[in-house]
Amino acid sequence: MAIKPGWNGRFYEDFEVGDVYEHPLGRTITATDNSWFTLLTQNTAHPHFDHHYAAQTEFGRPIVNSCLTLALVTGQSVTDVSQNVFANLGWDEVRMPHPLFEGDTVYSRSEVLALRPSRSRESTGLVTVRTTGYTQEGTVVITFTRTLLVYRQGHGPTSARPSVVAEER
Question: InterPro entries, from UniProt (predicted)?
Answer without folding.
Answer: HotDog_dom_sf, MC_hydratase, MCH/BMMD
